[in-house]
Amino acid sequence: MLVNNSNVYYFCIVNLKTPILLTLILLLGHKIQAQNCNLSIRGKIIHLENNEPIEAAYVWVIEAEEGAVSDKNGNFTIKNLCSGTYTLTIQYLGHKEIRDTVTLESGTFTKTYRLEEVALGLKSVEVHGHRDAVQTTTAVSALYGEKLLESRGENLGESLKRISGVSTFSTGNSISKPVIHGMHSNRIMIMNNGIRLEGQQWGAEHAPEIDPFLADEITVVKGAETVRYGPEAMGGVILVNPAPLPTKKTSKTSLNLVGGTNGQMGNINLVYVGGSHKIKGLGYRIQSSAKRSGNVKSPGYFQDNTGVSELNLSSSLGYSSSKLGVEAYYSLFHTELGILNDSHTGNLSDLENIIENGRPFADGEFSYEIANPKQRVTHHLAKLKSHYHISESWKLNFQYGFQLNHRQEFDKRRGDLNEKASLDLELFTNTIDLYVNHTHKNELSGTWGINLIQQANSNVPGTGVTPLIPNYDMVNTGLYAMEKYSKGPLEVEAGVRYDFRNVSTARYINQELRTADLDYQNFSAFLGGLYHISPDLTFNSNIGSAWRPPNVNELFSEGLHHGAAAVEIGNSDLKSEKSLKWINELQYDGKRTHLELTAYLNPISDYIFLNPTGEVFVSLRGTFNVYEYLQANALFYGFDFAGSYEFTDKISAYLKGSIVQAKNRDEDNYFPFIPANRMDWGVSYDFAKGTDSRTNKITLSNVLVAKQNREPDFDIAPAPPAYALFNISYNKQLIIGDDKLNLGLQVQNLFNTSYKDYMNRFRYFSYDMGRNVLLKINYEF
């Protein structure tokens, strides 16, 4: 049998190649299937020294030739990478470069990178000024830049109303204090350049003794921050921080001029900042401001004796090197405030008549004179702070603060007594903070420390009346520890604190010496987390226990509180307040859209509140409503929202608001002086052309405040009706050589609306302020 060799050859070749081809195809398919190119690297870049996020750090994947720039939160993401091993470089000016090897197998690789500042001695590198970052996973909002510039000339409380969830508790139109989620006074801690402000904060008319002009940024922390800052931070914290001092040769001056038509107000502020050429790392700042205004005007009449006179100054001197930092700081705040004449009535019928009338019977007239009743407050604050880098990862910090708060309140009295203060208090406070920070190139960082506070409050003799509160001495010792874990988009932190407080009081009543010696102690803790769901979307949740021992005025007030025009009765049996605040925030920051939604739940045991009794006190100095301090279990809850949207490059809008409820769980009713529901919205048009970044914008806004229907069972007068206020503003920036000139024109209460705010304690006697036109000039040279 003959065989066709060619066919056999072809048959053999085909049969030989088939399994090889199939094998190659299968191997290639497996290879294609295994090569996943949908992987990503996500990370967070922060300062090694203080965990502050670094914006605009450059990240580069060498093998993939792909890169990214970190956002304002320090986050970055590099997508569409295939599985394999890559070399990652991270660079930021003035910091050591990081080079890391990353192996991608599946999903997303996440890591936190801490950049270390380069030492001072290296050529062309300067040490940066030091300012500790706000290291918290709870809800944080801040005023800075353009928004802070728009608020110049306002007191601290009014400035912070620009932040959702923050309102004011006021006494007339010139005295206001910030309220966070329904809490104020001794439940809100204010930090003045890192020092807890210690003044007579227990009164509704005791405004914070602080000049907002000294701030480069004002930050509001809305969570319970007892562990981090101490017992008075159970409702939140307000951080008033100046800019870091310069560390190289520089010179900068800033001048602010503010004028207002209502009250014919004038306000001037001057700041000079400099750095030494001979001593690298040495910087200084000098700041001063003055304010004068007369009687404010409600629609149709002037409010007699509502003028303000204020003079402030501050100075700082600091030195920074790669290892050591030292700063000395001093500030003086002095103010004289008139108290509305019509809040002090002569007899019971006068009091009843003015409350029924809702406004003073006389139209009044304009005057700069500040007569009795009035306040005069002087506050000195001195600080010495130092830090030393023990190693690359450990930093030792020491801070000492001294404060003297002198408060005088003058009442209408006869003869020579009219020149003497009816309430004359001097509060001396010494604080010592000693703590260590540890930050590592891995995911862990933390702070351990001890805080000591010593206070002495004295009634200055010679007032001729029984002191409203006794003399007292207070000592508080706090030990705390906090740890944070950061990895890529995730941050988790926890902390614990123990405080012990001793309060000793003494005063004479009817020639009888009355003393008390009280001890308070408590543990507090918190647990919080923050997760960057995407580069644009962040969620954070924080739950913290908090406490606050009763203040001396809540325990022992007995008599007429002149500035508040009320008689206050204390309760020596009051217990410490204890709370557990849970706060959650969702934040979206897209190309044109910004949204924030904050929800909170805050049950408080033994909540202390000042309650109107319905009784009146009649004396030779007038007739006054009587209030008493009571205690009940409370439930605070609500939410804040804020958002903005850019319709076009020219037109944008914002919307923000807040709802807070405070339920008395014992009586099944509501507490007095809780903010009503409010909303603020506005539309802006930007006149700037093309890529011009200079401000040139007009904004029309509207504030809507509902009637406070959640009232206690009894109040001296019913809650005022809802109101709506329109405001308009125009802001423009001019560049003059190397200098900047910022101009602002604002009209508040554009239509001169008559209204009363529920949170104004003088709403019983008068309407709030009418139209006010403000001109603001800021020149930086």
From TrEMBL:
Major location category of this protein: membrane
PROSITE patterns on file: TONB_DEPENDENT_REC_3
Subcellular location(s) of the protein: Cell outer membrane
Domain TonB-dependent receptor plug residues, every copy: 134-237
Cited InterPro entries: Beta-barrel_TonB, Beta-barrel_TonB_sf, CarboxyPept-like_regulatory, Plug_dom, Plug_dom_sf, TonB-dep_rcpt-like
One biological process term in Gene Ontology: siderophore transmembrane transport
Pfam families in UniProt: CarbopepD_reg_2, Plug, TonB_dep_Rec_b-barrel
Membrane spanning stretches: 7-29
An annotated Gene Ontology molecular function: siderophore uptake transmembrane transporter activity
UniProt KW keywords: Cell outer membrane, Membrane, Receptor, TonB box, Transmembrane, Transmembrane beta strand, Transmembrane helix, Transport
Cellular component GO terms held in the UniProt record: cell outer membrane
Span of domain TonB-dependent receptor-like beta-barrel: 369-750
Membrane topology: Multi-pass membrane protein
Similarity comment: Belongs to the TonB-dependent receptor family.
Protein name, entry field: Iron complex outermembrane receptor protein
Organism phylogeny: Bacteria, Pseudomonadati, Bacteroidota, Cytophagia, Cytophagales
